[in-house]
Structures are given as C-alpha cells and as structure tokens.
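Hi all, posting the design record for the shared folder.

TITLE: backbone redesign
STEP: 1 of 1
STRUCTURE INPUT:
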C-alpha cells in the first residue's frame, strides 16, 4: 500500500483553505490544516475527516512557523492560502500605510516565511508541490485593482515570489505555481459568484501536476494565465 502524501494548507479553518483541505482529503492525501487559532485548526481537521491534523500556525510569527514544522515534520506539498484583505475602498493616494504593511506581512512575507521553512525538506526528498494563492487584482494582464491597492500589490508580489521560488527549485523535483481562483464567495468576498469548491479544484489541479508539469506559472481554471 502506497503511503499517502502529506499536504499542509495555511489558513485552512474556513473559505478556500478549508475547501482545499477537504478536496485533498477526498483525493487521498494526508492533510495538515493550519490556522492562527489552535482550536479552530483542530475543529476544522476533525470536520475534514480521519487522518486530517489541525496545527496552529501564524504566518507572521517566525516562532509559530518553526513550531508548526516541528509538529508536522516534512510535508510533500504546501498550499499558501492564508491572506487578508484590509484596504477595500481605499485608493493608492489615501490608503493608510499601516494597512499596506499589515497586508504585505501576511500575504507576502508570511507566504515567503512558510515556504522557506517547508520547501527545503521537499528539495531534500526530491519531490514537492507548492501552490501560492494569487488574484487577478494583482496581475498586469488585468491591471492592478486600485480599489484595494495594498491587497493588489501584495498579490503582484506573490506572483513575483512564485517565479523566484520556481527558479530556485528548478530541477529538484519541486514545482512552484500560483493559482488565481477568481472572485470566490468567502468571508472576504461575500458577494462573489465563484464557489470555494471550484477554487479548491483549481488548487488541487496544480498540486497534482505530473513531474514534468510547468513550474513558475499562474493558473486560472486549470489553464496557464498571464501575469
């Protein structure tokens, strides 16, 4: 019997993260669901199913990320989903710098910190998959969205981080890609038309790429999209 691969999902207590964890569980993965609150992570894991594990992880705190690595050990795949949208309704000339800083701390530096902690194990094992959650609001193809400038800029930076990590891991067996799920109905975007299950399917597609699959690209609905 083949030992199931392990995937760690950040921000997995609700929304796209929880839907992704459940989709991976259905597909036979062992899933580690993380959230800032330990009880929320454990509750989400218990509701996901047998062999799902809940672990506290705050992407903004190096000691929390390190503790999560100690608790889980190496993982085969990472879904960097944790994110915030704090500046909706502002424009680039009025958005408070503190909101931008807080957004970048979670969406960019948090993602980077988690990757630096978990990806080296994938390189050592010769296989891994990393998916970073992006957004059309941060692509030059669509044009950065000025109505949430800190958030849009953070997703542009996530796209850049994806290409950097892909370059650093090329040839190691690790594939690093970004996924733009499109407007998805979550607590962050309650009026959006897309479903979390559809978004989760897009993430799982990027995690289950063959070994010769693309790396350093942005996926939208299972297809490579422009940055």
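Okay, here is what came back for every position:
SEQUENCE:
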């Amino acid at each position: 019997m083949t030992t199931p691969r392990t995937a760690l999902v950040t921000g997995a207590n609700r929304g796209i993260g929880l839907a992704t964890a459940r989709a991976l569980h259905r597909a036979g993965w062992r899933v580690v669901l993380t959230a800032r609150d330990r009880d929320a992570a454990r509750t989400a894991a218990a509701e996901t199913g047998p062999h799902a594990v809940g672990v506290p992880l705050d992407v903004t705190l190096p000691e929390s990320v390190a503790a999560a690595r100690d608790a889980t050990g190496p993982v085969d795949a990472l879904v960097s989903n944790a994110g915030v949208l704090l500046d909706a309704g502002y424009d680039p000339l009025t958005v408070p710098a503190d909101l931008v800083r807080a957004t970048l701390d979670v969406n960019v530096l948090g993602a980077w910190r988690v990757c630096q902690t978990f990806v080296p194990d994938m390189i050592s094992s010769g296989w891994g998959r990393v998916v970073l959650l992006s957004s059309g609001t941060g692509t030059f193809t669509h044009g950065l969205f000025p109505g949430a400038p800190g958030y849009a800029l953070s997703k542009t930076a996530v796209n850049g981080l994806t290409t950097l990590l892909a370059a650093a891991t090329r040839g190691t067996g690790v594939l690093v890609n970004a996924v733009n799920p499109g407007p998805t109905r979550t607590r962050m975007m309650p009026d959006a038309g897309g479903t979390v299950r559809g978004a989760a399917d897009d993430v799982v597609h990027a995690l289950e790429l063959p070994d010769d699959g693309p790396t350093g690209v942005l996926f939208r609905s299972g297809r490579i999209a422009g940055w």
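COMMENT: The chain is about 40% helix and 15% strand.
Let me know if anyone wants the other runs.
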